[in-house]
Here is the input.
Amino acid sequence: MTYLYNNKGIYRTNGKPFSNKLEAVLEANTVPNSWVEWDYHDAEFGSHDWSIEPKIALDELYKTRALQLREAYDHLALFYSGGIDSWTILNTFVTNNIKLDEIYIWGAFEAEEKEYHNLSMSRDPGYYTREVLQTMPLVKKLAVEKGIKISVYDWTRDMLDATQDLDWIWRAGLRFDPAAMVRNRFHKVFRQHNEMVHKGKKVGFVFGIDKPRLMRDDDNIYFAFLDVIMTNGTVPTNDILGEYWENDEYFYWSPNLPELSIKQSHVVVNWLRANNKLNLIRHMHNSAAFHDESYYSEVNRAVYSEWNHNIWQVKKPTGATYSELSKWFLDSNFEAKLRWESCLWEVERQCGQKWFNNNTINDGLKGHISPLYKIASYKSNTQVLT
Here is the structure.
């Protein structure tokens, strides 16, 4: 097959393509009643029949994807959060003896460490570096046994300095939480990556995006990609600036292996149906559909069977712009926070409130979803569905 560069999708409005969603919004504002469309490899994903479950086992598809990445790049770096998605990727490489060159770990370690003693075992959203630190013994062990390099990026001071550049938000694309100011520096902090590229090597950066996001109408269950989820790991700055050597690869949501997302979706539906929990798939008109811990708990058990589901983890962030991923920053009275907020308000003014959830940039840009890919009938079992 021809290997497709796994970019983050293209936005189109008034017949013009954009890598930057904000630029697409500004273009749409020039013509009354214009809207923005998002194309995440629609032709490739749409060429498959999602209602047919692939016969190959899920763990074999994970292995296939890992081999696919290994064959495509000279150097592979996995961005590792300590969570279930990235752990499964790491486990796939290790258990199948597929070479992984680098584990890249990031977070505001310096800032968050000061609060650890007050947090105890609280699972409230925020201070996520605790999850990373609890996995460090495993990571260090693998580094020795498998010869994997560990790179750690503490972005505490970078986040404070990033607000000096008031234009950062126009390069972030579509997510404006404080961490977005520094996520686009992932590839630039360690010069070794640049040096590899200058020597003609191809470097791939792997992210654990994402588990199946299923929704339904009154009759059927569908899978759909969501653009704002993709920027939980990295923002599209490299695409916006044309720095195409920064090859960001989504392990699960890839046009190079659509069978993986298709298989995961069927495994989830089958699991929920067997456990009489199909009602956890919310109606597409229910705004809570993408923020349900009960749903994701079951999804994780279905598609990540090797993970220890008793491991302590912080709850997922609930905010879009005011995201608990940067709680230490948001709870501060730093001048940097005031500069960050001034950027937000200027973008909201220029774009117009209608483009934002609840008409405020505080709740983030309205998400774009892909076409709906039908997985199965919703009413094909006998349970009472609500």
Remarks:
- Residues 10-377 form one domain.
- The mean pLDDT is 91.
- Residues 46 and 373 are 8 Å apart (CA to CA).
- The two ends are 43 Å apart (CA to CA).
